[in-house]
């Protein structure tokens, strides 16, 4: 995919995560061929940015050789829609068959008719609950483990198939999804998650050390350091990492008191053609004014970094920032046309 700062490639790891050899490969590729920045996404993926066209073309075969994806484009497109609880197999309170079910579905999807293609940005969540509560993983389709049983959510529809029929029911729902318009996607009709997601920072379970990437990005050097330490990685759909041993880096947040964890921002101007402001720089400049409030800075009205509700949301436009209190990018702003110093003054007064 071509972007304003070059070509972008995506990596969707297996639900069991990345091993050190895979991390070392990705770090080296980002350093040699990209801009040395690696983005963590809201779907538990990685993005390498700033590649030239040939490096982007070569990446697929190199990644497949390292166990990162499938060679056949249609099979890989199907595999990528699924993501699972990041603590599956690590958290004793997460359903113990979460990973097995995720792999069953991934394998079974390859038997769907050749004409079936996942809708754009479609997702299927296999949510085993536990420390991260059931319902926290958001997908157009979601399997959630609740009260000892797997429940299939298709938007607002809730169905409890027999365990033996579960995979077939998911395949049937996937085929129905292909006939929906994007505006009618099930995710848009799903009830919002109203629970609390724990921060997953520092040591939180035996053998689990959590970190959040500052503004959703880490350097190739940081990923190389993780690989050199021999650490395995699970990626979370909140731009975080779960490591099996502690690793320190300047762009990893492990302290719950680090207020940079309150920031969400897209890549911004210079890296995205749609962005009207240097969002990441502006977000970091406001961190001392937040006093515990969550801030989302979006370079345009699309809100690619987050569609959720934040204490403060800034949406950049041609004439400056729109300011939204306790809302999202789609809400009516309290003020418009603000520069970053205007925003700073508003935060100090509020």
TrEMBL record:
A single GO molecular function term of this UniProt record: heme binding
InterPro entries, per the entry: NIR_SIR_4Fe-4S, NiRdtase/SiRdtase_haem-b_fer, Nit/Sulf_reduc_fer-like_dom_sf, NO2/SO3_Rdtase_4Fe4S_sf, NO2/SO3_Rdtase_FeS/sirohaem_BS
Protein's name in the database: Cobalamin biosynthesis protein CobG
Database matches in SUPFAM superfamilies: Nitrite and sulphite reductase 4Fe-4S domain-like, Nitrite/Sulfite reductase N-terminal domain-like
Residues of the Nitrite/Sulfite reductase ferredoxin-like domain: 5-52
Gene3D superfamilies found in the cross-reference section: 3.90.480.20, Sulfite Reductase Hemoprotein, domain 1 (3.30.413.10)
Pfam families reported for this sequence: NIR_SIR_ferr (PF03460)
Keywords carried by this UniProt record: 4Fe-4S, Heme, Iron, Iron-sulfur, Metal-binding, Oxidoreductase
Organism: Asaia bogorensis
């Amino acid at each position: 995919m071509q972007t304003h700062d070059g070509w972008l490639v995506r990596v969707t790891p297996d639900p069991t995560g990345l091993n050190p050899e895979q991390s070392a490969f990705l770090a080296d590729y980002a350093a040699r061929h990209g801009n040395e920045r690696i983005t963590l996404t809201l779907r538990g993926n990685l993005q390498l940015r700033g590649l030239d066209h040939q490096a982007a073309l070569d990446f697929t075969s190199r990644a497949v050789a390292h166990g990162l994806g499938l060679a056949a484009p249609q099979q890989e497109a199907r595999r990528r829609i699924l993501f699972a609880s990041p603590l599956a197999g690590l958290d004793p309170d997460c359903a113990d068959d979460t990973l097995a079910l995720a792999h069953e579905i991934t394998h079974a999807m390859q038997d769907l008719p050749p004409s079936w293609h996942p809708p754009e940005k479609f997702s299927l969540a296999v949510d085993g609950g536990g420390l991260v509560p059931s319902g926290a993983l958001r997908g157009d389709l979601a399997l959630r483990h609740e009260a000892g049983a797997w429940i299939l959510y298709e938007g607002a529809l809730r169905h409890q198939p027999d365990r033996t029929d579960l995979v077939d029911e998911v395949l049937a729902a996937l085929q129905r999804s292909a006939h929906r318009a994007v505006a009618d996607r099930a995710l848009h009709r799903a009830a919002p998650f109203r629970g609390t997601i724990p921060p997953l920072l520092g040591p939180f379970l035996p053998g689990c050390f959590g970190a959040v990437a500052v503004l959703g990005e880490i350097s190739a050097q940081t990923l190389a350091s993780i690989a050199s330490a021999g650490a395995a990685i699970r990626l979370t759909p909140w731009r975080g990492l779960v490591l099996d041993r502690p690793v320190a880096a300047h762009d990893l947040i492990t302290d719950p008191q680090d207020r940079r964890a309150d920031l969400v921002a897209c890549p911004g101007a210079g890296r995205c053609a749609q962005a009207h402001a240097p969002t990441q720089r502006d977000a970091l400049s406001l961190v001392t004014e937040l006093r515990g409030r969550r801030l989302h800075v979006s370079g345009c009205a699309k809100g690619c970094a987050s569609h959720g509700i934040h204490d403060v949301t800034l949406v950049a436009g041609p004439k400056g920032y729109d300011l939204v209190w306790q809302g999202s990018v789609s809400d009516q702003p309290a003020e418009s046309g603000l520069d970053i110093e205007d925003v700073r003054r508003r935060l100090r007064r509020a």
